[in-house]
Amino acid sequence: MQTGRQTWRFPSRPRITGSASIVGAKEGDGPLGSSFDAIERDAYFGEPSFEKAERVMFERAQRLAVKHSNCSMNDISYVIAGDLLAQNISASFSARTHSRPHLGVFSACATIMEAFALAALLVDSQNGERVLVGASSHNSTAERIFRYPTEYGGQKPQTAHCTATAAGAAVIAAQGEGPAITEATVGRVIDLGISNPWEMGAAMAPAAVDTLRAHLQDTGRTTLDYDWIATGDLGRVGHPLARQMLLEQGIDPGHQFTDCGILLYDAQQPEVFSGGSGPGCCTVVTLSYLLKKIQEGKNKRIMVIATGALLSPLTAQQGDTIPCIAHAVTFEG
Amino acid sequence: MQTGRQTWRFPSRPRITGSASIVGAKEGDGPLGSSFDAIERDAYFGEPSFEKAERVMFERAQRLAVKHSNCSMNDISYVIAGDLLAQNISASFSARTHSRPHLGVFSACATIMEAFALAALLVDSQNGERVLVGASSHNSTAERIFRYPTEYGGQKPQTAHCTATAAGAAVIAAQGEGPAITEATVGRVIDLGISNPWEMGAAMAPAAVDTLRAHLQDTGRTTLDYDWIATGDLGRVGHPLARQMLLEQGIDPGHQFTDCGILLYDAQQPEVFSGGSGPGCCTVVTLSYLLKKIQEGKNKRIMVIATGALLSPLTAQQGDTIPCIAHAVTFEG
């Protein structure tokens, strides 16, 4: 089954039989707003704290994905989930409500593709019949952990990202209808020495390039074999950098090279800066926008290379540089 | 391959071909001190911060495990690692030094068994030839995140745990000599409503019981089929509670029922309270003490049920209860 040093192939073609995306107001007002299953205009989701709001959003997405997959939570073999908050609390706390065997994963904003990869591996190796994956982020929980208290109103440079309020979940199953997961390329941790947390797009671009290059090498394909190649959230600064780096390595990413962080918001929306980020961003853009192109028969093969900046507030304060990672998953019709 | 709803079986018997454990002074002074590969008496490991110290300890353990496995880092297909610090920084930052494809996992103090389970799955499904797993914790990094600044000298109740300064790593391979990983049981998140972070043993006991019960049900075995059944770090408070809960469910855990958190320290050592904890605790006790019994031919089958409390300082401050999880792995000679 091993095609190369970083890529897994899934010959049984595990299917995404159902998914759901729930987003906040700003994401709902963006160009993909009509694609999402629910837009919640109350940033608190009716809860007393933003952290509990994120949890509730995540729980709703998971329940809705299971419903869209025409099964019940008891039919789920395993749940694989993660988020951006310290100690993965959105994933862990939302897991209390379903009581299914649970695997916590962490790759920052690349978390959902790690979850997809492991879920497809579980289904393909016949160790799970239906695996629920999910990832979430909330602008207001990320702001107060990674940046400043919102009330402080700190100014940001245009290279900054806007953490998406978004949660997505999907059921990957051995049987059923839906886009298939055919390959996953596990990324390496790359750190080229950027220490400025306002420059995450630039920091993450080399990781996306490294994983794309490994994927093409492992599969023997070219970028022309994909209808879309979407990076996770490099944004308007990091995405052109990735394109330039690929061209320098002799890889033409073509016009089908896009970015979930750019797709999520309109550049004219207030305070979106270089684009969306957070584990929820790439998750809901993939589930509700990119995969719909496969479901509607418009596209046959899409690759998403989710990128993650593996920093923490503590490492930033201690002057550390930012290790980054990118995991890629191939979806086919 | 699926034996039940929570247990994976690995018919190809992936082997632990090499491992390493590095610990701090208190762990080195404990009853298992002579079992470990290195005892570092400088809590800073020569670094300017405790976080960087944990990272260096983790890197050393990974390099030594690869060396003990008679291979080089380039022979490692994937690395699966995690720790207790916010945003998994010890695992992510140590990954910069090896440049191998990396999967971050998080199950708090149960992290190493999630890593073992996924590594064995990768090797058994022929998607990886050699997978490096690891987990770490450092008393001084955990203290200042989860409890109080050490300098504050806050008093603790006897139900508290002592987070171990310990990092362990192991190579799981398709070929070679060493204890085999034959099964893994993925735990469910259990939360019985305990909100006091000084009572983690009591909070985690129900998760250990739930996973042990599921494991026995999935495999059709009894506790007598194991030479040792070790919980992760329930400690002197949680472990007797788990025994009592098992007896109430008609499961006699027998005299072979032990606990890594109790084994790591002598109860007479200063400030060990109810026993060790932290992802490093169960990791080094398993690798350097329990698995040696298999290597020396004394034991044939050992199960370790690592337990994790999935809380964060933020959830504790917001008055949340503590979701817990336990993952079990069976090791055979």
TrEMBL record, chains A, B:
Pfam families: SpoVAD. Gene3D superfamilies: Stage V sporulation protein AD. GO terms for molecular function: acyltransferase activity. It comes from the Bacteria. Signal peptide: none annotated. InterPro entries: SpoVAD, SpoVAD_sf, Thiolase-like. This is Stage V sporulation protein AD. It comes from Ferroacidibacillus organovorans. The lineage of its organism: Bacteria, Bacillati, Bacillota, Bacilli, Bacillales.
